[in-house]
Design goal:
It is a single chain. The protein is an alpha/beta fold. The protein has a single domain, classed as NAD(P)-binding Rossmann-like Domain (Rossmann fold, 3-Layer(aba) Sandwich), CATH 3.40.50. It is about 35% helix and about 15% strand. It has an 8-stranded mixed β-sheet, with helices on both faces. The two termini are about 15 Å apart. The relative contact order is 0.14.
């Protein structure tokens, strides 16, 4: 069991107020689950949703996020992570961004770069510019991907999009903002929450026993937000052991041995 001092050393100085967070990509498969996890977590304060502004965005928000008016009065914002001006009102007053935005299937490399790399830069800059909290309290939790150690990943592994995900990770780690980068070994696992062992590691060395479920990815990201964890970049997959129930301990296990 971790001592109190050990835990404080891992999480940093805990703020007096709960994190205020915006989930980008909030009507996507992972983002919608993450949004609902955070809304239900008593350790988290204000939760907003940022949704790609399409012709069906408002309808999607009503259906997926269970909002009523589905506008800023309910913390629902619309825009495009590749257009910085659309981020400004949504990010005002938040100290944490949970990034679940991803380039759609079939997108070309220019679109992948714009969303997966430049879009992450834009979101970090918007968080810094929000001025709502000291830099020491700002956090970014990013959903990335395993496979970024392969210089020529095959299409079924992600192909060139992994290059842009890796660039986004490198930018985020150099940004000076506290961050957690979650790198699933493949999403869409068909199992319920808490039914599988979750294993963590680094540098694409984890055994692959199947894809992790979106809900488990969302649960781990939500835990990182609620704990204001920082300085973590880790692969995550499912194992063959007992189901993982202690997500705080999982984040501790994701550290390097010297952290």
């Amino acid at each position: 069991m971790l001592s109190v001092m050990h835990l404080f050393g891992f999480l940093g100085q805990l703020p007096l107020t709960p994190p205020s967070v915006i989930v980008t990509g909030a009507t996507g498969g992972t983002g919608s689950l993450l949004y609902k996890q955070l809304k239900a977590d008593p350790r988290v304060g204000m939760v907003r949703a940022f949704i790609y502004n399409t012709s069906t965005a408002h309808e999607d928000a009503q259906k997926i996020l269970n909002c009523t008016i589905c506008d800023a009065s309910e913390g629902i914002y619309y825009g495009d992570v590749t257009v910085p001006a659309t981020l400004t009102p949504a990010f005002a007053g938040v100290d944490t961004v949970a990034i679940a935005v991803g380039a759609p299937g079939g997108s070309d490399e220019d679109e992948q770069k714009a969303i997966e790399f430049i879009g992450v830069e834009n979101q970090v800059k918007a968080l810094v510019a929000s001025g709502s909290s000291p830099m020491s309290e700002k956090r970014v939790v990013l959903c990335s991907s395993m496979g970024t150690t392969d210089p020529n990943p095959k299409p079924f592994m992600g192909g060139p999009i992994l290059f842009w995900k890796l660039n986004a990770e490198a930018f985020l780690m150099s940004s000076g903002i506290g961050n957690v980068i979650v790198k699933p070994c493949g999403i869409e696992g068909k199992y319920g929450p808490g039914e599988k062992e979750l294993i963590v590691g680094h540098d694409d060395t984890l055994p692959h026993y199947g894809a992790i479920s979106r809900l488990d990815v969302a649960r781990v990201m939500a835990e990182a937000v609620a704990e204001r964890a920082s300085g973590l970049r880790f692969d995550i997959c499912i194992g063959k052991g007992e189901p993982t129930t202690d997500l705080s301990a999982l984040l501790v296990a994701a550290r390097w041995p010297w952290q």
